[in-house]
Amino acid sequence: MDHSPTLSLADRLERPISAITAYDYPMARLCDEAGIQMILVGDSLGMVVAGHPDTTSVTLEQIIYHTEMVSRGAKHAVIVADLPIHTYDDPEMALQSSRQLIAAGADAVKLEGGLGQIEKVKKLRASGIEVCGHLGMLPQRVKEEGGYKKKGKTGAEVDGMVEAAKALEEAGVFAIVLESMLPSAAEAITAAVQVPTIGIGAGGQCDGEIRVLHDVIGSSPWFVPPFATVHGNVAEVTVDALAKYLEEIQSTR
Ligand code: KIV
Q1: CA distances (Å), 189 to each of 63, 79, 246, in order?
Q2: Based on the structure, what is the number of domains in the chain?
Q3: How far is the CA of 56 from the centre of ligand 1 (A)?
Q4: What is the mean pLDDT of each run of 10 residues along the chain (253 residues)?
Q5: Dist. CA 236 → ligand 1 center (Å)
Q6: Separation CA 226–CA 141 (nearest Å)
Q7: Position 4 in a domain
Q8: Residues 51-86 pLDDT 10s
Q9: Residue 4 CB: number of other CB atoms within 10 A?
Q10: What is the pTM of this model?
Q11: Tell me, what's the pLDDT at 10?
Q12: Atom 8, ligand 1: residue with shortest CA distance
């Protein structure tokens, strides 16, 4: 793949798009060197890094701080930074928040939601800021919805998401994350738009896949989402290394 920064984001992301979250320099560098195409500085950091029960306490300052770390580590991957809850309540707020994320090193920002976000996406695009959409289960709405509920179980819900996806595309997003929905719903949305869809817990018919890094490498064994596939055992390797370090202290004193 040609990673030249002069290429548009769409040209830097080839189907099937490989995307993952990362929140700091070493992990971003490892993801980048492994050839991952897109790194999301996700507000999931509130859960997997900070230990909160959900993403609703994450602040813009935190995403800025982590985006700076990631941008020092990733030289080729497209870096997308999440707009945290209540940092894009209206178009002007979305613009001011996004400018800070771009200044921190992001190539693009991501916001959650459909038709209610169209004016914000248009404002960002008019200012030259690249935007990724996010439909389906929206973690920032976990409190209103009373939990994490899979989407796309009714025809009306699928139609609503297809309409939202088309409107996001029309407004200028370069990609849309589809989170936790029936595979048939993700397939319908993917067929309805030209921009790539990037799934997580949405079946195998999207144009790419995104996962939370900690799930993939096995560094957070206390909770593994049902759709996650664990490909590493970082928790075990870490505990093993620490046991050896403890032995070293004992044996050298
Ligand atoms: O914050 C995040 O990690 C995300 C992904 C789950 C898509 O939004």
Answers
A1: 29, 24, 52
A2: 1
A3: 12
A4: 68 96 98 98 98 98 98 98 98 99 98 98 98 98 95 98 98 98 98 98 98 97 92 98 98 94
A5: 25
A6: 20
A7: no
A8: 999 999 999 999 999 999 999 999 999 999 999 999
A9: 9
A10: 0.97
A11: 85
A12: 42
**Token pair for residue 77?**
């991957």
State yes or no: is 236 an active-site residue. Answer: no
Residue 166 lies in a domain: yes
**Domain membership of residue 213 as a residue range:** 9-251
Looking at the CA of residue 210, tell me the nearest atom of ligand 1.
Answer: 7
Any idea what the CATH number is for the domain that residue 38 is in? Answer: 3.20.20.60
Helix, strand and coil percent figures for the chain, each rounded to 5: 45, 15, 40
- Span from the CA of 44 to the centroid of ligand 1 (angstroms): 6
Residue 117: predicted pLDDT: 98
Domain-embedded: residue 1: no
Which of 17, 18, 20, 21, when mutated, tests ligand 1's pocket best, judged by the most ligand atoms within 8 Å of its CB?
Answer: 21
DSSP alpha helix (H) spans, 35-177: 45-48, 60-73, 91-103, 118-126, 142-145, 155-171
Measured distance CA(51)–CA(172) in Å, rounded:
34
The answer to whether residue 3 sits within a structural domain is no
